[in-house]
Amino acid sequence: MNFLAHVALSGEREGVLMGNYVGDFIKGQLTQLRAESWSADFLVGIKLHRFIDDFTDKNSIVLKAKKKLAKKHPKVAGVALDIYFDYFLANHFSKYYKEDLARFVNQSYDVVTRNKDLVPAAMIPIAEAMIRHDWLFNYREITGIKRSFDGLSRRFAFLAAIKGAEVELQENQEIYEQAFLEFYPKLISACENFIEDASIIQ
Questions:
Q1: What is the sign of the dihedral through the CA atoms of 81, 86, 91 and 95?
Q2: Is 162 left (phi over 0), alpha (psi -120 to 50) or beta?
Q3: C-alpha dihedral (5, 97, 127, 122), degrees to nearest 10
Q4: How far is CA 32 from CA 35, 40, 90, 195, in A?
């Protein structure tokens, strides 16, 4: 899952949202020494991010969609599918959440801005660009998805092959949309249980 899904799956606690939001940029073991300066919620958010990635990568619905996408974009199918799913989440947001997408996105940007000290240095340019260009809201349009793919292909050599991946989305939108609609409710339930269990352990 990509940024919009990670934020949306975080629940209502700012610390959890921030940990989930920055999770890709915090690598390695979460030792007690490393985490001593973090809040309990921030640590839960990082663990939630890893749980989401693992749960998604192992799901049979996702694996089937990724296999299809890999026929056109074999080296970047996982990354491209994550962004496809953010596109579908943006377009079906009201199906899963009470808040309007635009309001939710702006509130999320406010949380990130208030907690910018928690954003790792390597992520700061991405976080600033995300807010400045309103990536999360613009995921609802194919043009927004295209900009994401174009930007990733320019910024990261290993993602050069992702350029143009929006074409596969347009040509087979129903297939990928059905995969998202089948999978996302399962992910919501799993994340709610994860956060509840983590809160009990605290």
A1: positive
A2: alpha
A3: -40
A4: 5, 11, 36, 20
Could you give the CA distance from residue 10 to residue 44 in angstroms, rounded to a whole number?
Answer: 10
Q: Which token pair is 160?
A: 């050069």
Distance CA 54, CA 199 (A): 20
What are the tokens at 45? 């958010």
Residue-wise pLDDT tens digits, 152-180 = 899 888 999 999 999 999 999 999 999 99
CA distance 122 to 176: 31
Q: What is the pTM of this model?
A: 0.94
Comparing CA positions, the residue from 105, 83, 94, 104 lying closest to residue 180 is: 83
Number of H helices, E strands in the chain: 13, 0
